[in-house]
Here is the input.
Amino acid sequence: MIHASPAPRHVPGASFPLSAGLQAVKRILIDERPDWRDQAEGLGFHFHTIDGERYWDETAYYAFSLAQIEQDIEAPTEALHDMALELVSEVVDSEALLTRLNIAPQYWDWIATSWRQRDPHLYARMDLSYAGTGPAKLLELQYDTPTSLYEGAYFQWLWLEDQIRAGQLPGHADQYNSIQEKLLEALATLAQHRLIGSALHFSAVRESEEDRATVRYLRDCAHQVGITTREVVIEDIGVSGEGWFTDDEDNVIQTLFKLYPLEFMMEERFGPALTTRRMQLIEPAWKAVLSNKGVLALLWERHAGHPNLLPAHFADAGAAPAAGWVRKPLLSREGANIRIALPDGTTLETDGPYDDGPAIMQAYHPLPCFDGNYPLVGSWVIGDTAAGVGIREDATLITQNTSRFVPHAIL
Amino acid sequence: MKKRSSNLRLTLMVAAAPAVLLLSGCEEPPNTGLVLQTESQCDFQTDVPKDECHAAYQKALADHQRVAPQFADRTQCNDQFGGCTEVRNAQGTSSWVPPMTGFLLGYAASSLVSGASRTDCQRYPNAQGCGSSSGSSGGGVYRRVGGSSPLYRDYRTGEYRRPNGEATTDRAGRVYGDAGNTGVPARAVSVSRSGFGSSSAARSSFSSSRSNYSSGRSYGG
Here is the structure.
């Protein structure tokens, strides 16, 4: 089912399984496949190198044990997902919580209706800090516009198959990755149950090569299960006199997959027209609740002490973090406008465009460090099922759009 | 049990590879709607739940009061539809409207991908979603009602017409393709564009200020 009831699998008071043996994850150097660049180009993965810098980096991989994957990542991902959906249920019925999340009142009904009608959703990613030496900690939810999908779902899988075939990895090597398979299932279910329009439009902003490749990949997946697809650039979307949304050829857009933040759409000129619900959005309006960093504070309020959560609370706009805390704007992406006050009092800060709103404080939990690299585990949820991971590492503690994607294996 | 998929492929993204879509040609296309003559027929159809059918009838009847075709001339109305009745507007001007002699149930998101689940259910009655729990005597899964419309039978041609005069079908029962459309038009004339995307332009200072990145890289996260 695409959209399960938000009944929690995590029962307050229940005991949590111990971390799988406290064995550390390993970062292992490996030879690159000699032809991977040509392969990437032929498969539509043109952003493997960005402005001369590696983005796809297969000079190393991360090695997990099966127990680490299943007990420390897969199971917590589903538990956290259930807690997130349970929270949406609570937030849409509470003006107080919608206010705390700084969501514009004119969209409250739209968001609540979207949730009550169970508007289907497709995918989400949660970013975890995990090294095998303790429970994975949830740093952020990316429930509206998660990226790094293609490279995690497909190109990473191809890497593993190739490296086993080449003898670089043992025959029993595996990977936690059924992301694409589950995307196909989810899309086919949406179509079969007539939960989407007869054509599915895919959209990203014109200038972002990476985002356009990501929606092209999702379009490929939809095509594979027989869905009629079209592409429209976000900026080219129009409205008709009767209030229908249209593509650049005046086709009415029934269902729009948009890799563009809901909170941007709500602020923009066509935003109010969304509330007529004449165009179905994927991800749907209720994801506006979960794309907001305030949910990290709300989750902690409701599940304080949960082994996969970090302490977090709301903060005033402009407040400086105390030592050992991290300030994150309620709405921000790509690691922008993050301010870390390290336990020794020094601060790290990224600049960005998102400094114009309220924020949360989250307890500082450093990413593990492997040879000077800080990996962030992106754990995918397709429909309502945990489906795989993709790892991005950065040379700093804050994972930004300067990060590199590094494949993983289960050994 | 492996944690990865055993076989993946790409279609559209593969350079110069033809994308082949396999749809079997002999399957009946899924019907997109249902034309009924009276409300009581709701209890004998198996496409949608009975209560949804009754609700759709009530909505069509309400729409009929609002949007029924109006004729200034009684004879003209009766010649085409028969049984026309007089209505008066607020100014006291009278006109003639035909009786609602049917209604259209349109299914949500009318056209569809692979084989219709109804067909599969007839072939595989034990398949998921096909059992008696689905409540359909036809052994299939229900459609979802996407909309409804009043219909007016044209005596000259036998066709059921929508309020705007458009013909749907000449007999009651299942309809296919565009005939089932009750709501969303396929095309509409755009009167305005570029109502989305301005935030990305406003925030581009972020990416362009980064020396390593010549242009905005991503608005995802």
Summary: Chain A touches chain B through 96 residues (CB under 8 Å). The longest helix of chain A spans residues 66-91. Chain A has two domains: 26-294+367-410, 311-363.
